[in-house]
Design a protein that fits this description.
By secondary structure, this protein is an all-beta fold. It has no helices and 49 strands. Keywords: Secreted.
């Protein structure tokens, strides 16, 4: 490309916001050296100038008050952006670039390029297209963002401000946030990211990424509330991550997050996630998918905001009550604890200790497992299994199917709990066993509710005999291989409630608490 001669016209591609245009200056009346076609000053009406002079001289290019794109090409150039959000690239050579007011972007391709910004002049970014000889670059004051496009792994440092540091693609970078609230993204590759002081955010996309809010090698410890946003499973375990509070799962993969001893906030993505807050009173949000939550602190909170967020399960080693939109609860550990459902159709199971399981509303499934458990179905058509141990089994309102399991269980019925009066619509006991010492408790029901008295009268057990038209009689009938318990509470000679016992049983008054 010539550096001297006669220039007759000068053409530039410019963008005005409505498209890319070519602007031509006719300078055919002037005979000048091409290397002296500077300084060049743009008019305010030109939004973007691709100021690639196609020359190798030392040029001075000044932008307008608009948003300019200023390229120096060859030579040791001086580029001044003035106002606006400017793009400054000195090209080859040792260049001096000043952005001025606005959110400016600088491209550096030489270790000796000089850039400067005054305070409070916008959010300014530096792009590295070269690798420093020592492999490290630290942002100067008043610059906010740094990006590695050198093709080599670098050590990248922030300053006292709020920085965004972006590592290279496919290389292993080391990012130091320093002061301020920083965003650290190593890019693809096995990157190391250190937050420092401030509320820092780390972006993780590789299981080999290293994240710490401490600079142990510099004697600095992190502070602030820090967050990891990750597209791979991530755990806040180990001393290097002990000062990080939050993990947010991103992307579409089914990945997991684990907290630490702090008060953590763990957030899932739209897939099926497992969130474990570990020690501390944690907040866990699952999002979409069939999520699993591990709870070990009475202050832990599980939040599902959408009813369409999948079938979610809490596994808790402490007493826990399900919040909205969470379906299932499993009590774990080796201590007696309580599990409480919500208005959904819950599945709640105990551990091998003494548990209290409350289904609340909905058609619930309660399983006591081992221990002497109390199982209360609440409202709905519930299924209850006490498991081993001497259990209190109470279906509550609705058509309930209950199993006591082994040992002497107590099946509890209250006034208003009963369902229908047919074999297919009444409450049902699957495994009533006289040999185990099972009993049916009816003593909370007033056997003569029609007399207007406030006294809770006991039932009179009449065996398999027919009703006599006397209020308060309790009898049983065997039919079609099953046994039906019936009570008359108003004396009209007809059953007012019915309980089905699977199998044939010759019942006695001792099988009841009347």
């Amino acid at each position: 490309m010539p550096t001297s001669g006669t220039v007759y016209e000068w053409a530039y591609e410019v963008s005005t916001g409505d498209g890319l245009y070519t602007v031509v200056w006719d300078i055919s009346e002037f005979s000048v050296q091409a290397s002296t076609l500077s300084p060049l000053i743009l008019g305010d009406d030109v939004d973007t100038l691709l100021a690639q002079h196609l020359m190798v001289g030392d040029d001075t290019v000044r932008g307008s008050s608009g948003n300019d794109g200023l390229l120096g090409y060859g030579g040791n150039d001086t580029i001044i952006g003035n106002d606006g959000n400017d793009f400054l690239d000195g090209g080859l050579g040792i260049d001096d670039m000043v952005g001025g007011l606005g959110d400016d972007t600088y491209v550096l391709d030489n270790a000796n390029d000089m850039i400067s910004e005054d305070a409070d002049q916008g959010t300014d970014s530096v792009t590295l297209q070269f690798a420093p000889t020592d492999g490290a670059y630290v942002l100067s004051a008043n610059f906010e963002n740094l990006r590695n496009l050198s093709g080599q792994g670098l050590v990248m440092g922030g300053n006292a401000g709020n920085n965004q540091l972006f590592g290279g693609s496919g290389v292993d970078d080391v990012l130091y946030g320093a002061g301020g609230n920083d965003y650290l993204n190593g890019g693809t590759g096995a990157d190391a990211m250190f937050g420092g002081s401030g509320h820092d955010t780390f972006f993780v996309d590789n299981t080999a990424d290293f994240v710490s809010d401490r600079w142990s090698d510099l004697g600095a410890t992190g502070d602030g509330v820090d967050e990891v946003r990750t597209s791979v499973s991530f755990a806040l375990v180990g001393g290097d991550r002990a000062d990080i509070e939050h993990v947010t799962l991103i992307g579409t993969a089914a990945i997991n997050a684990t907290g630490n001893a702090l008060v953590n906030e763990l957030s899932g993505n739209a897939a099926a996630n497992t969130l474990n807050g570990a020690a501390g009173a944690d907040v866990m949000r699952g999002g979409g998918g069939n999520d699993v939550y591990y709870v070990d602190n009475g202050g832990d909170r599980v939040i599902e905001t959408s009813a369409a967020g999948g079938a979610d399960t809490v596994r808790s080693s402490v007493s826990f009550e399900l919040g909205n939109n969470v379906e299932n609860l499993q009590l774990t550990g080796a201590v007696a604890s309580m599990g409480t459902g919500n208005a959904l159709a819950n599945r709640i199971s105990g551990n091998n200790q003494l548990n209290v399981l409350l289904g609340e509303a909905g058609d619930d499934v309660l399983t006591g497992n081992g221990g002497q458990d109390t199982l209360l179905g609440g409202i709905g058509d519930d299924q209850i299994d006490g498991g081993t141990g001497e259990d209190w089994v109470e279906g509550g309102v609705g058509k309930d199917i209950v199993t006591g399991g082994s040992d002497a269980d107590l099946f509890v019925f209250r006034s208003g709990d009963f369902a229908g009066l047919s074999a297919g619509s009444c409450d049902r006991i699957i495994d009533f066993s006289q040999a185990d010492g099972d009993q049916i408790r009816l003593n909370s029901i007033d056997a003569n509710g029609a007399n207007g008295s406030t006294t809770n009268e006991a039932f009179s057990f009449i065996g398999s005999a027919a009703f006599h038209g006397v209020a308060g009689e309790l009898r049983y009938v065997q039919n079609a291989g099953n046994t039906f318990v019936m009570g008359d509470t108003n004396g009209d000679g007809a059953a007012d409630f019915m309980i089905r016992l699977d199998g044939l049983h010759s019942l006695a008054a001792s099988d009841f608490l009347l």
